Amino acid sequence: MADWTITPQLVRAPVGAPQLVKLAAQNIGPGNAVWEINANYVELANATNINAARVVGVTVSQAFTDQPIVYIASGTGAFGNTALGNGHVLVLSNVAGKFCNHADLATNHYVTKVGWANNTSTVTWGIEVTGLQRP
Questions:
Q1: Is residue 119 one of the residues assigned to a domain?
Q2: Mean pLDDT, 10 residues at a time, the chain of 135 residues
């Protein structure tokens, strides 16, 4: 699977987008997809488990275990990946917290659309948890 490489220091929260805060269940850096493991904690999401594929947002800060982490679920912001191009759709990868093309998902991985690229540096976040597995 060809995951997109994120440059953490280039990840920026969209201006005006609601910023959500929970506690990190593990060390998490900016630019990662997360899911809620309970009412207080998030951890890195992945496409191999139906629960872990329920993305709630993308991190825009860094946190160590049990520290607050900021994430967003909507808006358009800097992503820090020059491999992106207009119209690329980002889906959750099987690698914890990462993103890939839909075509790179393996059989039986859960499909979660996270957003789409507007150009080589910005993404519009629009999370859609399908609950469907790739055939």
A1: yes
A2: 71 86 97 96 97 96 97 87 78 94 91 91 91 94
